[in-house]
């Protein structure tokens, strides 16, 4: 049933999780139509260090993040 509902709504362009076997996984979410992978650059905290005892200071690093979208 869930497959039918998703099929009607269409899953094109939906962000899916490549490693998940659940409903958000690419296999189920894309209904077997496959998916493509895009690299997105996101900023994440990195090189965190303790200042004195109690403060933490981090740099912002750009990392490439893979995102998978249904075809
Ligand atoms: C994708 O699914 C895996 C396994 O369920 C999970 O550990 C991971 O956090 C999920 N990734 C995203 C981006 O939701």
From TrEMBL:
Q: Which organism is it from?
A: Armadillidium nasatum
Q: Which Pfam families match?
A: wnt
Its GO biological process annotations read: canonical Wnt signaling pathway; cell fate commitment; cell morphogenesis; muscle organ development; neuron differentiation
Superkingdom of the source? Eukaryota
**Does the keyword Thylakoid belong to this entry?**
no
Q: What does this protein do?
A: Ligand for members of the frizzled family of seven transmembrane receptors.
Protein localization: Secreted, Extracellular space, Extracellular matrix
Q: What is this protein called?
A: Protein Wnt
**Keyword field:** Developmental protein, Disulfide bond, Extracellular matrix, Lipoprotein, Secreted, Wnt signaling pathway
**UniProt keyword NADP, yes or no:** no
């Amino acid at each position: 049933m869930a497959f039918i509902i998703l099929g009607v709504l269409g899953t094109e362009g939906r962000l899916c999780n490549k490693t998940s076997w659940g409903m958000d996984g690419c296999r189920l979410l894309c209904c077997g139509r496959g998916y493509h992978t895009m690299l997105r650059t996101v900023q994440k905290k990195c090189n965190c260090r303790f200042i004195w005892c109690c403060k933490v200071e981090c740099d912002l690093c750009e990392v490439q993040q893979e995102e998978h979208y249904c075809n």
